[in-house]
Design the sequence.
């Protein structure tokens, strides 16, 4: 079974930056999933796709309007995916979830999920 553990959330002022990390455990991780990525759920809203990365090759995919401020990357040696968030805005406030899945970058549907990490952007 694959476990995903996020870290790096917190409180930041508008215009600031944060980097989220998600470590995947399980030696068979890459046999089960080919994509890892991030979703977020703002207060009172539905969960939305943020970004995903294809484990083999590193192709990246972003949700609407997020590319340019957010950058997803991975470290295959550490089984870890990162989300670098710059020029944060109050509307980026949300619980950010790490996810993994097969074809998740195109389906925008995760199979395994982390517990979530809170990101709060103050104005």
Sequence:
């Amino acid at each position: 079974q694959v476990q995903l553990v996020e870290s790096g959330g917190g409180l930041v002022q508008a215009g600031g930056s944060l980097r989220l990390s998600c470590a995947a455990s399980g030696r068979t991780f890459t046999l089960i999933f080919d994509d890892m990525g991030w979703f977020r759920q703002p207060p009172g809203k539905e969960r939305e796709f943020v970004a995903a990365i294809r484990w083999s090759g590193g192709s990246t995919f972003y949700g609407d309007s997020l590319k340019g401020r957010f950058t997803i990357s991975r470290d295959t040696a550490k089984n870890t995916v990162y989300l670098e968030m710059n020029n944060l805005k109050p509307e980026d406030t949300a619980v950010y979830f790490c996810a993994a899945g097969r074809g998740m970058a195109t389906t925008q549907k995760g199979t395994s999920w982390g517990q979530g990490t809170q990101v709060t952007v103050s104005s």
